[in-house]
Write a structure and sequence with these properties.
- The chain is mostly helical.
- About 55% of the residues lie in helices and about 5% in strands.
- A three-stranded mixed sheet has the order 1-2-3.
- β2 and β3 form a beta hairpin.
- α1 runs antiparallel to α4, α1 packs parallel to α5 and α3 packs antiparallel against α5.
């Protein structure tokens, strides 16, 4: 992947170790990012963007799916992994509150970190395909680290205009 057009991150430059460390920090960082926001600030969609809650739900889903995909790829190199739906906003927002969404990030980050804990060396290079594009197992951690950090920046920007 080339640099992210929004935040400039080059996922290929993130080491797996640094990616795992970043994911490990997400539960606390997301809780702090929402600290002090009103319910309206968390759930309101800004013009042309997602609500803070939508970002939190999305990151929870990315972390969950990355942990599950990592386990699959390690067990079945060459597996085809289904991509996240390409939607304008994550499903289920009407039934999710910020506490539940943050708890999901806690569980999903722990799951991904746990799945990565026993992986070493060449196992990180095991291939898989996602939406017709080939990746290595390490990409799952690098991508999750980028997604989590990217959306924290968007939440910080939303706080500035709130």
């Amino acid at each position: 992947m080339a640099n992210c057009p929004t935040c400039g991150v080059d996922e290929s430059s993130i080491s797996v170790h640094d990616g795992v460390d970043a994911v490990r920090t997400f539960p606390g960082r997301y809780r702090r990012a929402l600290d002090g926001l009103t319910a309206d600030q968390v759930t309101s969609d800004p013009p042309g963007g997602w609500s803070v809650l939508a970002y939190v739900v999305h990151v929870g889903e990315v972390l969950e799916r990355s942990g599950a995909a990592l386990a699959t790829v390690l067990d079945q190199p060459g597996a085809e992994i289904s991509p996240l739906p390409d939607e304008a906003r994550p499903p289920g927002l009407g039934t999710t509150d910020s506490a539940s969404a943050l708890d999901r990030i806690d569980r999903a980050a722990a799951g991904l970190v746990g799945a990565a804990a026993g992986v070493s060396g060449e196992a990180w290079t095991r291939p898989f395909t996602l939406g017709g594009v080939s990746h290595d197992a390490g990409w799952l951690v690098r991508h999750a680290a980028h997604e989590g950090a990217h959306h924290l920046r968007e939440i910080a920007a939303a706080r500035e205009v709130a």
